[in-house]
Design a protein that fits this description.
The complex is a heterodimer of chains A (99) and B (263). Chain A is α+β, with helices and mostly antiparallel strands. Chain A is built from four helices and four strands; from the N terminus they run αααββββα. In chain A, 46% of the residues lie in helices and 19% in strands. In chain A, the strands form two sheets. Chain A has a two-stranded antiparallel ribbon with strand order 1-4. The chains are: A alpha+beta (99), B alpha/beta (263).
Chain lengths: 99, 263
């Protein structure tokens, strides 16, 4: 019976490949290790969570090559997208913007 | 006006040579004057895939070093009189030719031919540098595998730093049965990850093995792979050709004619 259960829970290997590849290309393009990226990711989440109520499981990160010309000056750019649920209301009134 | 196209991939064994042979033959089939250049010095293979291995007298290095004239080294195809092969040298290495020499060689051929196709060696070292030096555009061959796509991404990065007019992707060896059950990345997945326009997709088809065994490119033949290659050629010429039925199912007619041909 375990076999049948495995059949239903087994992740499709195509999806596994896609996820591995995405992470791999982020680190390849940015020329940094996956561990470093993971650290950036968690620090980013920690700092943004102080101000915004976010879905931390839906953070998407990618590295693009900036389209600026000339091509030889192109640098990798890290993009992050995260769904914001709400601005943390208890902070809204307290934040002092620097003048 | 002639166009110089480099067929490259980074990773080895994804189908660069087969693609070069079929695209070159297909362009000749469509009435263009084409020369195929095997730039894989030391590991030549395009001659075998084209079925022209018994006709080699001079090679690319002989031309570059001035041991012979270009005309003496070019081998005319068996079926298409406007299709030629410039074979690679088997007993030399990649350092026998420089990027500057390749640019000159390719420029000399521009007057005679509509399309100059360069079959690039695997890797990103001198062989690759030589092959891309004189190219106007690139066809990147990849398969739906993590390693091949990773290498393709690296190649795209290197090519974008050069001055190519255009970069297109060919996704090779797709197995639609595996894509359907979720065990292979789909064309959309690969497009999404690499963000380079896809100019064609080719199925993992045993007809390709058969055609390579025979030394006769299958472009234009009945069957999904032969038609897929011909469509790529049409798109290279600027035609807008709809993509083939992605489930790769053969019509009854093409099945029958395939069986008859083999009988």
């Amino acid at each position: 019976m375990v076999h049948i259960a495995e059949l239903f829970t087994r992740k499709n290997s195509g999806e596994i490949a896609r996820k591995r590849l995405k992470l791999l290309l982020i680190s390849d393009r940015a020329d940094c290790s996956p561990q470093l990226l993971e650290m950036i990711r968690s620090d980013f989440l920690r700092s943004i969570s102080r101000y915004l109520d976010v879905r931390d499981d839906e953070l998407r990160m990618c590295v693009i090559r900036t389209p600026a010309a000339p091509v030889t000056d192109r640098l990798p750019a890290i993009c992050a997208a995260i769904p914001v649920l709400d601005v943390r209301s208890h902070l809204q009134n307290d934040i002092q913007l620097p003048n | 006006m002639s166009e110089v196209i480099v067929v490259t991939s980074g990773k080895g064994g994804v189908g660069k040579t087969t693609t070069s042979a079929n695209v070159g033959t297909g362009l000749a089939m469509l009435g263009k004057r084409v020369v195929l250049i095997d730039t894989d010095i030391g590991l030549r293979n395009l001659d075998v895939v084209m079925g022209l291995e018994n006709r080699i007298i001079y090679n690319l290095v002989d031309v570059v070093e001035g041991n012979c004239r270009m005309k003496q080294a070019l081998i005319r195809d068996k079926r298409y009189p406007d299709l030629f092969l410039l074979p690679s040298a088997q007993t030399r290495d990649k350092s026998s030719v420089s990027p500057g020499q390749m640019i000159k060689l390719v420029d000399d051929l521009r007057e005679e031919f509509d399309y100059i196709l360069l079959d690039c060696p695997a890797g990103i070292e001198q062989g690759f540098r030589n092959a891309i030096a004189g190219a106007d555009r690139a066809l990147i061959v990849t398969t739906p595998e993590v390693s091949a796509i990773r290498d393709a991404d690296r190649i795209i990065g290197l090519l974008e730093a050069g001055d190519l007019r255009r970069i297109d992707l060919i996704i090779n060896r797709i197995r639609i049965d595996m894509v359907r059950r979720g065990d292979m990345m789909s064309v959309d997945d690969v497009m999404d990850i690499l963000s380079v326009p896809v100019i064609g997709t080719v199925p993992d088809d045993e007809d390709i093995v058969i055609s390579t065994n025979q030394g006769e490119p299958l472009v234009g033949m009945n069957g999904y792979a032969g038609q897929a290659y011909l469509n790529i050629c049409r798109r290279i010429l600027g035609e807008s050709v709809p993509f083939l039925n992605p489930d790769g199912s053969r019509t009854l007619w093409s099945r029958l004619s395939f069986l008859l041909k083999r009988a």
